[in-house]
Amino acid sequence: MTGHVRAELEVRDLTVEFPSGGYVVRPLSGLSFNADDGELVVVLGPSGCGKTTLLSCLAGLLTPTSGSISFRHNDVGNLTGPALGEYRRYTVGVVFQAFNLIRSLSARANVMAPLRLARLPYKAAAQRADDLLEVVGLSDRAGHRPGQLSGGQQQRVAIARALAHDPPLVVADEPTAHLDYIQVEGVLRLLRQLSVPGRMVLVSTHDDRITNIADRVIELAPHFAAADRAPEEVSLADGEILFEQGDRGDLVYLVNEGEVEIYRVRADGAEEGLAVIGVGNYFGELGPILNLPRSAYARAKGACRLTGYTVRAFRQRFPGTGVAANPAAGSPL
Amino acid sequence: MPVEHRAPETTVSYAFEPVDTTRRTVGILGITLQDLRFRARQFLIAVIGAGLVFAMGLLLSGMVAGLGNEIAQTVGAARADSWVLSTGASGRVDALSTMPSSTVSAVAREPGVVRAQPIIVVPEATRVGTVTDSVVLIGGRSEGLGTTVLTAGRGVRGNGDAVVDARLGLGVGGHFTVAGLTFRVVGTVAGKTLLGGQPDAYVTLHDAQAVLYGGRPLIGAVITSGTPRRLPPGLSAYSNQQIETASLDQMAPVVSSISNSRAFMWVIAVFIVAALVYVTALERTRDFAVLKALGASSAMLFAGLVVQAVLVSLAAAAMAALIANLMKGLFAQPVDIPTSAFVVLPVTALVVGIIASLAALRRAVSADPAIAFAG
Questions:
Q1: Domain boundaries A9-219, corresponding CATH code
Q2: Which of A100, A198, A217 faces B286 most closely, judged by CB atoms?
Q3: I want to staple A328 with a disulfide (CB 3.0 to 4.6 A). Which of A11, A281, A311, B155 is the partner?
Q4: If you write DSSP's letter for every residue of A154-196 in order, what string do you get?
């Protein structure tokens, strides 16, 4: 055989940018991974790392800025019109963090909703909903509205709804976020059971305990704070950009020579100066500490020379320094 | 590094029948109706609010119709083919003209006239017990033209007798006074009023002359059976239709005010239903996002909003018809709600519903399915 066997799900160089609060934010930057049929894939990362953005793209609800998503050889990012509608309806089932059941509908009617919207006759839709509610163990609650169900029960109804069209891809966004540990167990057991040949289940979470039941884990934010390596000397020419807004980085920079200007780029493209960091001052500590993307650009103002420290090395080298001790930095980076 | 995991012991598979797309079942309708039921209290408030406004609209329609109908009833009750007035008279039934009684015999001799009789129509103040009221005194010959069909009692036979409309509030045997003359009610009629509900009071020509002309032999008009082909100089013939039109013309400002108020009522109804639909749409923003994520189109969501608004409007219209029928007797002036209004109302309600749902159109169209992911 020549050539490789293509994975069921291929995400390549996925980047998503959108305006928010007057600035351009980039929750995903160059993400790539594969996943195969029948796998339970856990997308792990803290809040704000782009998990929901990734799931929105996989669900066909958000168009990536660049990169590609291929599921079963369909380029999801390029789907439009009826093809996109078909994909959303029949290829992917979504389980939302906040359950998102329709309050006015019973559990059965909630599961029936996607079927009825696809014009399945009432009787067939009701039968299908009852079958799915039985699968998630809620046959006896079929006539109850969401307000009469516990969080775990609501999430199981949401899972049943996501399975309405028997989609080959189920994405679940923080499905255990609002549940107690007893309910968490039931929901995770169900998601694990659903990951069988013919279906891939992709779960986003910030709780790394869930990785224990995963077939594959995609970490969206590596733990920079725990990493360590030797300090890095950096020389920049005038106007050279050290890092961009939305980049991920693991180094805190100390200015040894020259100056670095910190600025943001607004959604309209205009630059907004935040600070100029001079010799002896540092910047870029919050991103690595909190596993957040850089929230501003850093650009050399004239030729300059910097030293980049990992968070651990920075703390060892400059004990007593921290976020509050560096007002000159001007902004958390 | 992927975590190793043992394959689950239980596997679940779903045999799924293909979707029958030939069925034009619109799933959004069921969701819409269940939402309507879920928000029943909210919708009930809107139905009551819009229903009361619709009822007021119906009653105002009835008032406009009533003004025309009472004139037609009073004019028609004279059973005349034509009305002979002084040339230049306004033609209003409540403000005829003044002419000598001898005009009657002069008109009677003209070709085309089968029968001619005098009539006097004059609005007057009256006292019923200790209460001052208004009547439209109509003087004419007993049992001749100008009398009307009774609902109780007998007709006017002599001076002092009166046949009155039930709105005066007197039954047979009751008494009332006009310009010092006391009348005894000998019979009653229904639906005979003028000037927005002032009851007609049929009396002898003599009594009417006593009230209006101090007993002098003057009359207001000559009514004829048969249409005169020629008239003595200074006289003109008016058809019943001309009399009715001239009489209604004086009510034009009132009719216009009522019609404007009625239009205003429809606008208020639109606002009430629109407010409800809009608030509901605001509350359902996330539902819309979820439904879109589940495959609903903007058009489907909008159709659901239209159905809700139209159902609320139609329910309000049904309630309005009931209320208006119950309330129309409470008004001093005649309220004759035309049958056509009950046909126009649901159509209006339909239009109101559609216009109202436009208020929430943007909400349905702009609902971003990605919002459903927000925690």
A1: 3.40.50.300
A2: A100
A3: A281
A4: HHHHHHHHHTTT--SEEEEESTTTT--HHHHHHHHHHHHHH--
